[in-house]
Design goal:
By secondary structure, the protein is mainly β. It is 1% helix and 48% strand.
Length: 357
């Protein structure tokens, strides 16, 4: 394998360098695959819209999930060129594995890059670190610690509450087992304190089988709901559902996590609030496989979900979706496939979801 920190890309044609002609229907592009020499492993991905309208995508790459020599890589989609730039290393550790890059531009223009540093053999030994950029993700600060607690990780993007506070979904993973999410695992939230310049723990979600990777929205001032990846193993089950929880005090305390109506094969989900006020859930509509990758839409604050459509189907293991809505109303979704070797980008809109059954 080529050195993960030395991109050898001369003469390489990539799918992301094609103008895909974004339209009002579902359009999916293959952004990066094994031909990009950041290592065969590319997982998970995250995306944000920058102030100037560019899109910025990150993923972590290397030889594999538990390799030591890994890094978080960033790529920019510019409106002028309509192409994705070649991935550039933006975070690494010379002695430890890094993973789960999360990219987000805050309302004040600061771009945050959160990521995980694994201290030992399993992700239950991880800590959260971050960098910031004040020039639109062109240069980055030195890394700093967000949480020193063993087992703390990130997956989802922060949300801005009606109070203007930032709330970062995180999680505490227990068990020290790569094939099992322990029952003591919990969704956790970190709240940005601008006076102390710290992310402070602010509420966690407990559930019977454990849960991780919460995705939250505020449906009314102070009233939040979260959908979480279930705990347990990866084998076939008949009772594997996304875990749902609520908060009525701005995310400071959360109700006991309970099974929702949506199946979950021990896989990440995403939940966002659209400009229309509708809620969009992205999930694997299966208890067994990360296939298909589907979306559901609620127009009544999580009471009913009458619209559902499949985004990707087939035996390709569609995983770790991250969704955003850009200022033009388009929905952009990034996810990985082909055993965590390909980063995909889907573009659609709310009308496309509503046109499904």
């Amino acid at each position: 394998m080529h050195n993960v920190f030395g991109l050898v890309l001369l003469g390489l044609s990539i799918a992301g360098a094609v103008n895909v002609g974004w339209a009002a229907e579902l359009v999916t592009e293959r952004v990066f695959g094994p031909e990009i020499h950041t290592g065969p492993y590319k997982h998970p991905a995250s995306i944000t819209e920058l102030d100037n309208g560019d899109l910025y995508l990150v993923y972590y790459g290397g030889a594999g999930e538990y390799a030591v020599q890994t890094g978080v890589f960033g790529s920019r989609y510019t409106k002028a060129t309509k192409t994705w730039s070649l991935p550039k290393l933006i975070a690494s550790d010379p002695f430890r594995s890094v993973g789960n890059g999360v990219i987000w531009q805050a309302p004040d223009g600061v771009v945050w890059l959160f990521y995980v540093v694994r201290w030992a053999e399993t992700w239950s030994t991880s800590r959260i670190q971050a960098k910031i950029s004040r020039d639109g993700a062109r240069s980055w600060s030195e890394s700093f610690v967000v949480s020193e607690h063993e087992g703390m990780m990130v997956r989802g993007r922060p949300i801005v509450l009606s109070t203007s506070e930032y709330l970062l979904p995180a999680y505490h993973e227990t068990g020290f087992d790569p094939e099992l999410v322990g029952p003591g695992s919990t969704g956790v939230f970190l709240r940005w304190d601008p006076a102390r310049r710290q992310w402070l723990e602010s509420g966690e979600i407990h559930s019977r089988k454990g849960n991780i990777q919460p995705a939250a929205v505020e449906i009314a001032p102070g009233h939040l709901i979260a959908y979480c990846r279930r705990g347990g193993g990866y084998g076939p089950v008949t009772d594997g559902y996304i875990v749902r929880s609520e908060s009525v005090d701005g995310g400071r305390t959360w109700s006991e996590g309970r099974d929702s109506q949506f199946p979950n094969p021990n896989a990440a989900v995403d939940l966002i609030k659209l400009q229309s006020g509708a809620l969009l859930l992205v999930y694997n509509n299966s208890m067994v496989d990360r296939d298909p990758l589907s979306v559901a839409l609620s127009a009544d604050r999580d009471k009913t979900w009458p619209w559902k459509r499949d985004l990707a189907t087939g035996p390709h293991d569609y995983a770790y979706p991250v969704a955003i809505q850009t200022r033009d109303g388009k929905l952009h979704l990034v996810y990985t496939s082909e055993q965590r070797t390909v980063v995909n980008h889907a573009i659609f809109d709310e009308a496309w979801v509503r046109s499904g059954k």
